[in-house]
């Protein structure tokens, strides 16, 4: 059964959905102008290995749009607030594009809460020209709403419907300009958890962006998957390839990635151990 609800994360609410069972926990973070529905095809693969929580990030889908500006640290705090609301101690973050950026920031800021990272078509830095493009997208959203966002991202003739609040999405887009002024790359060597970095060789962002992420991570702790003839949305375009790669990665780092136990399970374990100890004391 899918549990969809609004969760308070301080002064605003985020829309989330949760499904599945097991000791592993996955949290899925979508990219710019997408929603949690973008994970529909990959969801069953993740649910076969544990519980899955998907989040509509600020301004997107049904989530609120608090006043800006937004910082990467604010979005990482949103993720941890959702984990707290769901009573999850540690999770595997699955992030696409912008969601991957938020995932990396969360792993750096709250390492004790993140068991692993699956990063799809993401980046840790950008050039000044790209930062300028992000600002142009944000201004289009401020001026012309979600229709303006769609034209700025996908072209002047685009009729793609964007679900969310234009003001909030504009602030999320401005947040991305920080990848020029304050790139993540130099900090990625501090990431403690295992990571799987996946990219399509025809991704318009270029495979190099994901290769930079992979190369900056601690040696032996990350794996890189390049998928030929595929673009930016691998969770839609290459579900089988991504699913196989995730399953292999989970087996390789099985001990670490199996430790994302929620607090309900941990409480039950403590109570069970206490009862066992009590019985043992009575029999001795």
Oligomer: single chain
The portion of residues assigned to helices is 40-55%
Uncertain stretches of 5 or more adjacent residues: 267-284
Helix and strand composition category: alpha/beta
The third-level CATH topology of the largest domain is Rossmann fold
What CATH architecture of the largest domain do you see? 3-Layer(aba) Sandwich
Counted up, domains total: 2
Q: What is the terminal-to-terminal distance?
A: 46 Å
Taken as a percent bin, the fraction of beta residues is 15-25%
User: What is the CATH first-level class name of the largest domain?
Assistant: Alpha Beta
| Superfamily (CATH H level) name of the largest domain | Alpha/Beta hydrolase fold, catalytic domain
Provide the gyration radius in Å. Answer: 19 Å
Report the mean per-residue pLDDT as an integer: 92
Strand order of the largest sheet: 1-2-4-3-5-6-7-8
Give the beta-strand count.
Answer: 8
What are the secondary-structure elements, in order, as H or E? EEEHEHEHEHHHEHEHHHH
Count of alpha and pi helical runs? 11
What does this structure look like?
This protein is of the alpha/beta class and about 280 residues long. The chain has two domains: about 5-125 and about 185-284, Rossmann fold (3-Layer(aba) Sandwich); about 125-180, no CATH class. About 45% of the residues lie in helices and about 15% in strands. The protein is built from eleven helices and eight strands. It has helices at about 45, 70-85, 100-110, 130-155, 165-175, 180, 205-215, 235, 240-250, 255, 265-284, and strands spanning about 5-10, 15-20, 25-30, 50-55, 90-95, 115-120, 195-200, 220-225. Strands 1-2-4-3-5-6-7-8 form an eight-stranded mixed β-sheet, sandwiched between helices. The longest helix has 27 residues, at about 130-155. The protein is globular, with a radius of gyration of 19 Å. Residues about 265-284 have low confidence and may be disordered.
């Amino acid at each position: 059964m899918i549990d969809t609800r609004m969760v308070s994360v301080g002064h605003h609410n985020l829309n989330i959905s949760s499904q599945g069972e097991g000791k592993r926990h996955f949290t899925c973070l979508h990219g710019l102008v997408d929603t949690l529905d973008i994970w529909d095809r990959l969801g069953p693969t993740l649910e076969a290995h544990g519980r899955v929580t998907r989040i509509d990030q600020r301004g997107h889908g049904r989530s609120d749009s608090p006043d800006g500006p937004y910082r990467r640290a604010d979005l990482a705090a949103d993720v941890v607030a959702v984990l707290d609301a769901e009573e999850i101690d540690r999770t595997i973050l699955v992030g696409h594009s912008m969601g991957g950026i938020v995932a990396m920031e969360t792993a750096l800021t709250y390492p004790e809460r993140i068991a692993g990272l699956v990063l799809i078509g993401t980046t840790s830095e950008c050039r000044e020209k790209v930062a300028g493009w992000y600002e142009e997208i944000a201004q289009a959203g401020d001026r012309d709403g979600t229709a303006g966002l769609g034209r700025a991202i996908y072209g002047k003739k685009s009729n793609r419907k964007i679900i969310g609040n234009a003001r909030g999405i504009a602030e999320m887009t401005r947040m991305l300009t920080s990848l020029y002024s304050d790139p993540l790359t130099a900090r990625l060597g501090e990431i403690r958890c295992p990571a799987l970095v996946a990219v399509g060789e025809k991704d318009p962002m270029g495979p190099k962006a994901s290769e930079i992420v992979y190369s900056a991570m601690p040696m032996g702790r990350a794996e890189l998957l390049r998928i030929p003839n595929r673009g930016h949305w691998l969770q839609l375009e290459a579900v089988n390839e991504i699913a196989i790669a995730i399953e292999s990665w989970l087996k390789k780092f099985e001990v670490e990635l199996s430790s994302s136990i929620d607090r309900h399970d941990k409480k039950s374990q403590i109570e069970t151990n206490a009862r066992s100890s009590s019985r043992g004391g009575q029999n001795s």
